[in-house]
């Protein structure tokens, strides 16, 4: 075994010594660098690192507040002049703030700067990631500064509208080639002409907004030159030439008449020719009736059936109480598509010379931030019932009941109670008595007639496709609530009519009387559900018992007054189906059982021979429901 020589030992010791010195030096350097990095980070605890910029503005050593002041100073300089655009030689400068399209009382900044978010992003530079990553990032910042854009948002719609207004004279809309019909001087023939198409021009909105956004990031604004875009028409003259040959066959269908109820309008060849133009067909363009032209000329002929919708308004007070509600009124216009189809069907049948004008409803909206916030936007369902022939007190109670429940708001998931909406039903709370039969005499009962309100609410909830949670039919058929099976009786404290708001938004229930009709409307936001119900089926009809005479001292002896007419007994049912947007269904059958009701007449006597209460007593309030049928002579 060979041992190291003295020289080898000395060399080994020397190398080891130098290695130790190198390691020590590295450790010292690392500690030194770490100390410097730590000291640098500590010194910038509340300030931006060197090399951080926003829109070219150096933030070295500044606090967030100092940096904000610099940015706001820069903004005040660039905002004062507005935003300048140039299109086809015309210059327009838009103010930095303009009126909101949604709220005339609100001014909006065309470019909104989010300084808080911008400053937070800049302050985070050099402070995220692992320690070594942070240190390298700070070193790079010193060698090559980092410039961050200003976070902002642009009101695209307002800017587009303002530019369209500013450059209105420079914008040229494209014009389609058009078939025109003119009567010759002899008025025996129609001359057909085709106008030339016109190519339009406008500015490139997307490019303009992109340029504006780029300038906003750097807070450096200059005039933005808008590029011209040529807009091609949809229909060219060459497309219409083949259609000229179709005109004679179409014009041969005139004259014919369009009717609506009792009004009739004669459509001559000249009138029909004014309606014609190029319309989409199965194999491309065809000559046919242009909806807009037909509606215009029918209006000129005196079709005074068109009316504009009137928007409503909702303002809430405390605890979701309705402070102000203006019910919107639906509009009405000509259903051009269905009317034209009727005309084409008339021509194809070659039988008769008249067809029907079809109208359609224009749904109004409800204005106000409360309506938007709660999702009360449109009609979900409407219920109606007729109370013609009701006595004055019954009419009063129905009107009063409609007013009491009008404006009920039901949050999502909560239940509507008819009795709760009406409150206490007695004289102290404004209700009037209506006569009902109790025992062998007639007595007043407060709130008589309110089943008219419950029935109408039931029908409205069904139409809206809501979940019915409580409903009781009357014990006998009442003429006010036909068709049988669609009624709902209420009586304090029971039975009640209730339904649940199973939509995702609040719903509003309004109720009013219109002549002899109660109208209840459910408002909310449609969620795609479709409610359907079959016509009630009436079965198991039984004859009423013989007429019942009740002695009373309230009439002169021998005087007879019939208070109730006879009703046959029967059962009724109808199916109720709600199909939701996801395809699931709720199916339910509502059953009603009506017992026969005998005619009841009061006969005046000097003294009642049998004071024992008759069988009529258990079908008034004792059974838990109102008689709800007027006592008439």
Biggest sheet record = 4 strands, antiparallel
Number of domains: 3
Number of helices: 15
Poorly predicted spans: 437-442, 612-633
User: What is the total tally of β strands?
Assistant: 40
Beta-strand percent range:
25-35%
**N-C termini distance:** 142 Å
Backbone shape: extended
Radius of gyration: 41 Å
Biggest sheet: strand arrangement: 25-33-32-26
Percent helix? 25-40%
How is this structure best described in words?
- This protein folds into three domains: 52-166, no CATH class; 236-362, Roll (Ubiquitin-like (UB roll)); 375-623, no CATH class.
- Helix content is 28%, strand content 30%.
- It contains 15 helices and 40 strands.
- The strands form 15 sheets. A four-stranded antiparallel beta sheet has the order 25-33-32-26.
- It is extended.
- The model is unreliable at 437-442 and 612-633 (pLDDT under 50).
Descriptors:
extended, disordered C terminus, 40 strands, 4-stranded antiparallel beta sheet, 633 residues, 3 domains, alpha+beta, single chain, Ubiquitin-like (UB roll)
Quick take:
The protein is of the alpha+beta class and 633 residues long.
């Amino acid at each position: 075994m060979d041992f190291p020589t003295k020289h080898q030992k000395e060399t080994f010791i020397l190398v080891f010594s130098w290695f130790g010195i190198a390691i020590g030096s590295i450790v010292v350097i690392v500690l030194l660098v770490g100390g410097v990095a730590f000291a640098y980070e500590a010194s910038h605890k509340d300030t931006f690192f060197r090399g951080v910029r926003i829109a070219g503005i150096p933030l070295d050593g500044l606090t967030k507040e100092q940096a904000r002041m610099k940015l706001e100073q820069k903004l005040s300089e660039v905002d004062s002049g507005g935003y300048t655009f140039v299109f086809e030689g015309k210059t327009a400068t838009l103010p930095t703030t303009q009126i909101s399209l949604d709220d005339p009382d609100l001014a909006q900044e065309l470019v909104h700067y989010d300084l808080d978010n911008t400053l937070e992003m800049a302050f985070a530079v050099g402070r995220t990631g692992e320690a070594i990553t942070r240190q390298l990032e700070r070193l790079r910042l010193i060698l090559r500064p980092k410039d961050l854009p200003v976070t902002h948002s642009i009101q695209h719609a307002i800017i587009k509208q303002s530019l369209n207004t500013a450059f209105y004279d420079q914008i040229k809309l494209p014009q389609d080639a058009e078939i025109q019909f003119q009567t010759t001087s002899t008025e025996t023939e129609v001359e057909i002409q085709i106008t030339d198409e016109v190519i339009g021009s406008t500015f490139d909105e997307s490019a303009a907004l992109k340029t504006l956004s780029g300038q906003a990031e750097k807070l450096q604004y200059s005039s933005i030159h808008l590029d011209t875009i040529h807009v091609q028409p949809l229909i060219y003259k060459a497309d219409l030439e083949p259609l000229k040959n179709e005109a004679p066959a179409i014009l041969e269908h005139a004259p014919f008449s369009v009717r609506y109820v009792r009004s009739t309008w004669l459509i001559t060849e000249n009138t029909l020719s004014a309606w014609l133009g190029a319309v989409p067909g199965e194999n491309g363009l065809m000559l046919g009736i242009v909806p807009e032209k037909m509606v215009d000329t029918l209006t000129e002929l005196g079709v005074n059936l068109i009316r504009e919708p009137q928007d409503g308004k909702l303002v809430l007070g405390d605890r979701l109480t309705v402070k102000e509600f203006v019910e919107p009124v639906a509009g009405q216009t000509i259903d051009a598509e269905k009317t034209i189809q009727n005309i084409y069907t008339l021509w194809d049948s070659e039988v008769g010379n008249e067809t029907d004008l079809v109208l359609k409803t224009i749904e109004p909206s409800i204005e106000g931030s409360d309506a938007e916030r709660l999702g009360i936007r449109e009609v979900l369902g409407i219920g109606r019932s007729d109370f013609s022939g009701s006595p004055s007190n019954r009419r009063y109670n129905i009107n009063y009941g409609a007013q009491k429940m009008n404006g009920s708001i039901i949050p999502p998931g909560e239940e509507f109670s008819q009795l709760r909406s009406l409150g206490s039903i007695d004289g102290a709370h404004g209700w009037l008595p209506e006569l009902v039969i109790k025992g062998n005499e007639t007595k007043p009962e407060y709130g008589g007639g309110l089943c008219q309100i419950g029935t109408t609410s039931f029908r409205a909830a069904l139409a809206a496709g809501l979940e019915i949670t409580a409903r009781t039919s009357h014990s006998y058929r009442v003429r006010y609530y036909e068709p049988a099976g669609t009624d709902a009786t209420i009586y304090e404290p029971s039975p009640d009519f209730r339904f649940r708001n199973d939509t995702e938004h609040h719903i509003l229930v309004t109720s009013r009387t219109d002549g002899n009709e109660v109208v209840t409307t459910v408002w909310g936001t449609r969620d795609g559900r479709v409610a359907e119900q079959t016509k009630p089926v009436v079965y198991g009809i039984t004859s009423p018992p013989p007429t019942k005479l009740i002695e009373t001292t309230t009439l002169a002896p021998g005087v007879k007054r019939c208070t109730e007419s006879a009703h046959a007994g029967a059962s009724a049912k109808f199916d109720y189906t709600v199909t939701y947007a996801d395809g699931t269904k709720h199916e339910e059958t509502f059953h009603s059982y009506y017992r026969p009701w005998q005619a009841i007449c009061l006969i005046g006597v000097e003294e009642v021979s049998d004071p024992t209460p008759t069988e009529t007593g258990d079908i008034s309030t004792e059974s838990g429901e109102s008689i709800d049928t007027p006592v008439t002579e």
